[in-house]
Amino acid sequence: MTTKEEVRQMYGDPVATDFTDSGHEKWTYTFSNTQVDAANFIPVYGDLRQGQHGTEKHLTIIAEISQKGCTSG
């Protein structure tokens, strides 16, 4: 069993929190690793061609919260 505080220590604060229809708490995390293309810094050309690349991952934790901790849903 993992407590809410342990989840926060591992991943930080969620970007969004909500509740499911059944009353379970839902925390959403987004992790991004993007890099701006060097061409963006070329005068005029960079203004026309704003580019970046990278990855983005999403994590959603749905849990039943109790006084002792949360269990995966």
Q: What structural class do helix, strand and pairing data support?
A: alpha+beta
Q: How many β-strands, per DSSP?
A: 4
- Share in β-strands: over 45%
Return Rg in Å: 19 Å
In what order do the strands lie side by side in the largest sheet? 1-2-3-4
Protein described:
- By secondary structure, the protein is of the alpha+beta class.
- The model has no long low-confidence stretch (mean pLDDT 80).
- A four-stranded antiparallel β-sheet has the order 1-2-3-4, with no helix packed on it.
- Helix content is 16%, strand content 45%.
- A hairpin with a 5-residue loop joins strand 1 (16-19) and strand 2 (25-36).
- It is elongated, with a radius of gyration of 19 Å.
List keywords for this structure.
about 45% strand, alpha+beta, 4-stranded antiparallel β-sheet
